[in-house]
Specification:
By secondary structure, this protein is an all-alpha fold. It contains seven helices and no strands.
Length: about 180
């Protein structure tokens, strides 16, 4: 698909905005990326969106790679560049500035309160992302119970053990390979 210059600028602007909201990493804003790319513009399908994230997360390297895969699926190499620049530039510049500023004011009440307040925000954004990725499988009657069981097992294991999440990713791959979810 070839996007117009206006669409590419809109994509860049949207990803720049999301970059500033990505507390906990770019994956926390995947729910809004889905809304913008799939629901609002229809540039890719639900399946393409979910597959883009799965492929990028399975590949070695930083987790933010999924943004480039999404951009590639929307508009080829230029789309990958636009989404990656939009995601990396604002948050990098903001992080550089605020890290230096906060280091000088580490004990200030406002800095400690801000840091403490970020935890629930990050958890909420991760839950929204998890739901966007799971929803197509939960809606599908053929995969519903397998997907819900996999979600329940993942939550239970993560809450009650120190097992690496990579084992749960492997479990999800096996369950998917056998067609249960």
């Amino acid at each position: 698909m070839s996007l117009s210059a206006a669409d590419l600028l809109g994509l860049l602007g949207h990803f720049m905005l999301l970059s500033l909201l990505a507390v906990g990493g770019a994956i926390t804003t995947a729910a809004d990326m889905h809304r913008y790319i799939v629901a609002q513009h229809g540039w890719i399908t639900d399946a393409q969106f979910t597959s883009s994230i799965a492929i990028a997360q399975a590949a070695p390297g930083p987790n933010v790679l999924f943004v480039a895969v999404l951009g590639w699926n929307v508009a080829g190499p230029l789309g990958a560049a636009v989404t990656l620049i939009g995601t990396l530039l604002p948050s990098t510049l903001l992080t550089l500035y605020t890290t230096r500023w906060a280091a000088q004011r580490r004990e200030a009440l406002a800095v400690r309160a801000f840091t403490t307040g970020m935890a629930p925000l990050t958890i909420g954004l991760l839950l929204a992302t998890g739901w966007v990725l799971a929803e197509p499988f939960v809606r599908d009657p053929a995969h519903r119970w397998g997907a819900l069981a996999l979600i329940a097992v993942t939550i239970a294991v993560m809450n009650r053990s120190r097992i690496s999440p990579i084992w749960l990713v492997g479990l999800g791959a096996l369950v998917g390979a056998f067609g249960f979810a």
